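Task: sequence design from structure.
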């Protein structure tokens, strides 16, 4: 029964990713974001530590470098890791002088090095952003279903990450 559930979650995730990728160019806008380059703390695919984000028009590149952790150990530091995401900035759905609420969607991956092992994973990313206008800060919560490819093959449909970043420009 659990395999059937994972199968349907994977199919729904792929359908949502296809929808986002085909509609993102028409829907995307960069308005409502606090700046173009942000730095802070956050988590990516199997990595927690330094979080960087660079907006470029309707897209953004997001990266994390720091401690590698996997599965239930994702909050421990079992090695070093790097994650990188390509995000499509979707339209801001609430704008106010104090804050904007927006969302993004995309995909990425993570590389972890620990205990003489290399781990590689791919992920779908769906993020909810709270962008503060008074101080250029974003608070982000992401749903991140992940597929470990190397060295252990594993699918985790219920992964969540977050970021807090201040924008320098």
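Answer:
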């Amino acid at each position: 029964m659990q395999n059937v559930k994972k199968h349907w979650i994977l199919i729904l995730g792929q359908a949502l990713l296809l929808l986002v990728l085909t509609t993102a160019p028409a829907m995307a806008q960069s308005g409502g974001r606090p700046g173009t380059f942000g730095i802070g703390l956050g988590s990516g695919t199997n990595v927690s530590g330094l979080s960087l984000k660079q907006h470029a028009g309707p897209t953004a590149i997001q990266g994390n470098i720091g401690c590698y952790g996997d599965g239930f150990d994702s909050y421990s530091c079992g090695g070093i890791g790097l994650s990188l995401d390509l995000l499509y900035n979707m339209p801001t759905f609430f704008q106010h002088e104090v804050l904007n609420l927006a969302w993004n969607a995309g995909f990425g991956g993570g590389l972890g090095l620990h205990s003489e092992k290399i781990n590689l994973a791919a992920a779908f990313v769906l993020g909810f952003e709270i962008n503060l206008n008074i101080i250029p800060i974003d608070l982000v919560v992401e749903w991140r279903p992940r597929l470990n490819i190397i060295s252990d093959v594993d699918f985790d449909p219920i992964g969540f990450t977050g970021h807090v970043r201040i924008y320098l420009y």
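The chain is about 15% helix and 55% strand.
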